Amino acid sequence: MLRSAVHAVLTRELFALRRAVEAYPDDASLWRCPPGLPNSGGTLVLHLAGNLQHFVGAVLGGTGYRRDRDAEFARRHLPRTSLLAEIDATLAAVERGLEAVQDETLASLYPEVISGRTVATGDWLVHLAAHLAYHLGQLDYHRRVVTGDSRSIGALAVAELPAPASPRAG
């Protein structure tokens, strides 16, 4: 059950990430960095893609992805099409990684030590979903600041969560 919930949330947020990138009026605005904001929208996208492709795709799904975290924060001025391709690759990596996760895997230790800590795989997956949502909010705020467009991209939409297979009793 936790695996399917994490899958639903990660997928929902990655589609919202795609909508956020598409909502920028041009490639240049994705890379603007106003005073007080430490990262551009493009940097946030690269960071989220690298994070999930590594921790879910490579570690859990064996995709072979090699993360270059420094490049996530150093690369600049990629076209929107490149960022959208990274999001698509991340969706595929999340699919593959979560397909490899069984219920018993969730209670087991995550295969990598994280910031000097050993954590359960299920806890780490929940953290990754929260991390994605946190940065998605930053990206939406960045877009609004640099474009002046306050329209919502529909992030965190409850309607995008899957309906339960059967109604709850009670």
Mean pLDDT: 94
Helix content: 55-70%
β-strand percent reads under 5%
Rg is 17 Å
State the distance separating the first and last CA atoms. Answer: 19 Å
Question: How many strand segments?
Answer: 0
List segments where confidence is low: pLDDT < 50 over at least 5 consecutive residues. none
CATH superfamily: dinb family like domain
Q: Which structural category do the helix and sheet elements fall into?
A: mainly alpha
Element-by-element helix/strand order: HHHHHHH
CATH second-level architecture: Up-down Bundle
Short structural description:
The protein is mostly helical and 170 residues long.
Report on the architecture of this protein:
The structure is a single chain. The protein is an all-alpha fold and 170 residues long. It has a single domain (2-159), classed as Four Helix Bundle (Hemerythrin (Met), subunit A). 62% of the residues lie in helices and 0% in strands. The protein has helices spanning 2-23, 27-31, 41-61, 69-74, 80-99, 103-107, 121-147. The longest helix has 27 residues, at 121-147. The radius of gyration is 17 Å and the shape is globular.
Q: Which helices and strands, and how do they pair?
A:
Layout: H1 2-23, H2 27-31, H3 41-61, H4 69-74, H5 80-99, H6 103-107, H7 121-147
Which features does this protein show?
170 residues, Four Helix Bundle (Hemerythrin (Met), subunit A), 62% helix
